[in-house]
Specification:
The structure is a single chain. The protein is an alpha/beta fold and 758 residues long. The protein contains 30 helices and 24 strands. A seven-stranded parallel beta sheet has the order 13-14-12-15-16-11-19. Helix 5 crosses helix 9. The radius of gyration is 29 Å and the shape is globular. Bound molecules: adenosine-5'-triphosphate (ATP) and magnesium ion. InterPro entries: DExx_box_DNA_helicase_dom_sf, DNA_helicase_UvrD-like_C, DNA_helicase_UvrD/REP, P-loop_NTPase, UvrD-like_ATP-bd. One of its GO terms (cellular component) is DNA helicase complex. Keywords: ATP-binding, DNA-binding, Helicase, Hydrolase, Isomerase, Nucleotide-binding.
């Protein structure tokens, strides 16, 4: 049981408790995910068949990493564990069972864009005011109904919903939901929420199917349980009902998806659902320094609604948390980029040791620009997926039509791309005809001569024949051959090839990349079915990160805090700590929304292992105008003893910034600009990343510093001349505190510092 040695007694207890319901509620970094990983390894080592284990994770990437770790302990058997996100696991099950629910097994998965496209068409047909019935609002209402297992029929009947103050203004909601659901069904398509909604329907309507999966999944584990919604909760509960071998892990303080229907009550109800549940609490944080753990405890203690937890770290105390102030968003980017550059060279770190986390996607722009200017390699996680690019979606739409010709979104996308003289009027006619004759749009297309007038019938019929030819020709082809055939014969490849602009070239290369990916898939040896239909199955569920060709690349990671859940990095920069940004403006109306923002801040700071840096800007461009920003209230809430303020940024030489700077120079805390402050101004304690660069003495060469003594005078390549004040630690990790004339005190690790003894 060698592998159990990497666990503390509480963790080991949870790993060894393989029978019955188990819940682990614990703070960030306490090893919850590690427990799941070891538990699965332990189950397999104890003789449980990997096919009987189901693990639900927050991202596909998390599942992949977990599987790799388990493989280290149990070998290739780990391949057989069912592991992935709720969506990907249940999509797989629905493929097998779809026909019971009236769907083809090749059903299409509509991504959010596809759903919006269907809704937009419906709203237009119904002539509804697109302000009152905005696509985003309508989609989120439908999504929330589905996640609460309210079908369109129940929605229409549910007076509670209709009486809801806001919804009473939108009397057509029920009709929209009905039309949307019916249209998706007719198109043989499920949207993201359907993957859970329909799974529930399947398990409810077919007791034999439920029974089959209850016996298949004898052991269930769910990570990040605090963020499950009702629909997910019920699936898990049903599947676990026979064996009750269910283990969930979570942290109520990290529940950050209430806006998407996540329900913290799922954790609180676990003991009610399973009175025999064994509850484990993990209190030791292994991830972060004591300062980081203390600061995160102090943040979350401002929330009224939370389970009391005692979290401590036995790691080193660590540096204090650095707070940086910038005068604009661009300058914030520059400060962060320079700080990373400096920290990396001073302490011999890798780019991949750094992460920049932000509240909103828009903030990445300033960060990216600054990193690019400095030549720092970076990668944005959770951004627009490769599969969401226009040209990729176009080609995939042809694939989708080939396997599911009823897929209306795909049809609309490519019926006239590349151009085939099928105008919008003709497309409208197809839709109307289909409605009139109670046929599918595909049936109209394939019998165009019968339903459309002569002029438009010709091109439409040709299009139908083209898709039919794909269906026949690609039948026994490998995924790659089929994809290439479709790319060529649809005319899409040529259309992109003929576009010689830079963007055109780029799009052509993207298609090449997709085809390469499909080729790799065709050549895989670990799977039997290699048709294009199999390749297509989960494509809508893939995110940018799953398509990562080089996951271990040496790059700085950029992502929103929401997508950083569960991850960890040695050095973390949380940026944009400003009122109305973080906490976000939308959260300021209710305590519960504000508390969710605070939990988000807690998630952000708890990603850091060694160093945490927080920054804010005093002005920022928003919708094209420069606005003044106040520091976030979250900064006020942190106990100042954990902080180190770096207010030494030199603002850009504009009068606006100069005024700002002078105003700020008189202040020390985060109090709002107007508030008087009684504390004396705090001088910068650390160096400014923007301090004037030192030009080394001609012929500068680092000296051997093994005999460095306090009091000695030195020259540093970048920081200039200084005097050694203190040496601490043992070789080879001796740290020197040096007073540099230009920038003040600085701690350097001697083995990396380039110093010349003067
Ligand atoms: P989060 O709430 O952020 O998801 P978590 O509770 O899932 O955190 P893990 O990611 O499992 O925590 O663990 C945090 C870090 O601590 C990981 O690097 C993990 O390997 C390490 N760790 C956990 N337990 C131990 C242990 N007993 N010994 C050594 N390292 C540990
Ligand atoms: Mg975790």
């Amino acid at each position: 049981m060698d592998y159990l040695e990497g666990l503390n007694p509480e963790q080991r207890g949870a790993v060894l408790q393989i029978k019955g319901p188990v819940m682990i509620i614990a703070g960030a970094g306490s090893g919850k995910t590690r427990v799941i990983t070891y538990r699965v390894a332990h189950l397999i080592r104890s003789g449980v068949d990997a096919f009987n284990i189901l693990v639900l994770t927050f991202t596909n990437k998390a599942a992949k990493e977990m599987r790799e770790r388990i493989t280290h302990v149990v070998g290739t058997e780990a391949r057989n564990i069912w592991m992935g996100t709720f969506h990907s696991v249940f999509a797989k099950i629905l493929r097998v069972e779809a026909e019971k629910l009236g769907y083809p097994s090749n059903f299409t998965i509509y991504d959010t864009d596809d759903s919006k496209s269907v809704l937009r068409a419906i709203l237009k047909e119904m002539n509804l005011d697109d302000k009152l019935y905005s696509v985003n609002h309508v989609l989120s209402r439908i999504s929330s109904a589905k996640n609460n297992l309210i079908s369109w029929m129940e929605y229409a009947k549910n007076e509670q919903i209709l009486a809801d103050d806001n919804e009473s203004r939108r009397p057509m909601m029920a009709k929209i939901y009905e039309t949307y659901a019916t249209r998706c069904f007719k198109a043989g398509a499920m949207d993201f929420d359907d993957l859970l909604f329909k799974t529930n329907e399947l398990l409810k309507r077919y007791p034999d199917v439920l029974n089959k999966y209850q016996h298949k999944f004898k052991y269930l584990m769910v990570d990040e349980y605090q963020d499950t919604n009702f629909s997910q909760y019920l699936i898990v509960k049903k599947l676990a009902a026979v064996t009750e071998n269910i283990c969930v892990v979570g942290d109520d303080a990290q529940s950050i998806y209430a806006f998407r229907g996540a329900n913290i009550q799922n954790i609180l109800n676990f003991e009610k659902d399973y009175p025999d549940a064994k509850i484990f609490k993990l209190e030791q944080n292994y991830r972060s320094t004591q300062n980081i753990v203390n600061i995160s405890n102090s943040i979350i203690s401002n929330n009224k609604e939370q389970l009391k937890k005692n979290v401590f770290s036995q790691n080193e105390v660590g540096d204090r948390i650095k707070v940086m102030r910038a005068f604009s968003d661009n300058e914030e980017g520059k400060m962060v980029a320079e700080a990373i550059m400096q920290d990396r060279s001073t302490n011999g770190l890798k780019w991949s040791d750094f992460a920049i986390l932000y509240r909103t996607n828009a903030q990445s722009r300033a960060m990216e620009e600054a990193l690019r200017k400095m030549g720092t390699p970076y990668k944005i996680y959770g951004g627009l997926s490769f599969y969401q690019r226009k040209e990729i979606k176009d080609l995939i739409a042809y694939f989708r039509l080939t396997f599911n010709p009823n897929d209306e979104v795909a049809m609309k996308r490519v019926i006239n791309y590349p151009k085939r003289a099928i105008g919008d009027t003709t497309i409208d006619k197809i839709i109307i005809s289909a409605d009139q004759h109670k046929l599918t749009q595909w049936e109209i297309i394939t019998s165009a001569q019968m339903y459309l007038d002569g002029r438009s019938a010709g091109p439409v019929a040709t299009f139908g024949t083209l898709i039919q030819s794909f269906q026949v020709v690609t039948k026994n082809m490998t995924a790659y051959d089929a994809a290439l055939h479709i790319a060529q014969h649809s005319g899409l490849l040529k259309d992109l090839y003929d576009d010689k602009s830079v963007e055109g070239l780029n799009r052509y290369e993207n298609i090449q990349e997709l085809l390469n990916g499909i080729k790799e898939f065709s050549e895989r040896e670990d799977i039997e079915e290699k048709g294009l239909d199999v390749f297509m199955q989960d494509i809508a569920l893939l995110t940018n990160d799953d398509n990562d060709k080089n996951p271990n690349a040496e790059t700085v990671s950029l992502m929103t805090i929401h997508s950083s859940k569960g991850l960890e990095f040695p050095n973390v920069y949380v940026v944009g700590l400003e009122e109305n940004l973080f906490p976000s403006q939308m959260s300021l109306n209710s305590r519960s929304d504000l508390e969710e923002e605070r939990r988000l801040f807690y998630v952000a700071v708890t990603r850091a292992k060694t160093k945490l840096n927080i920054s804010y800007a005093t002005s920022r461009f928003k919708f094209g105008t420069l606005i003044n920003c106040e520091p976030s209230r979250f900064l006020d809430e942190i106990d100042a003893k954990y902080l180190e303020l770096d207010y030494s940024a030199k603002p850009a030489a504009s009068s606006f910034f100069e005024n700002e700077r002078q105003q700020w120079a008189r202040k020390d805390t985060f109090s709002k600009p107007q508030a008087p402050t009684s504390k004396p101004s705090t001088p910068p304690k650390t160096t400014s990343m923007l301090a004037k660069a030192h030009i080394p003495t001609p012929g500068f060469a680092p000296s051997d510093t093994s005999n460095l003594q306090t009091g000695m005078e030195v020259e540093h390549e970048r920081f200039g001349f200084g005097k050694v004040l203190q040496l601490e630690g043992n070789k080879p990790d001796i740290k020197a505190t040096i007073f540099f004339k230009e920038i003040g005190n600085k701690q350097l690790l001697l083995k990396f510092a380039k110093l010349r003894i003067v």
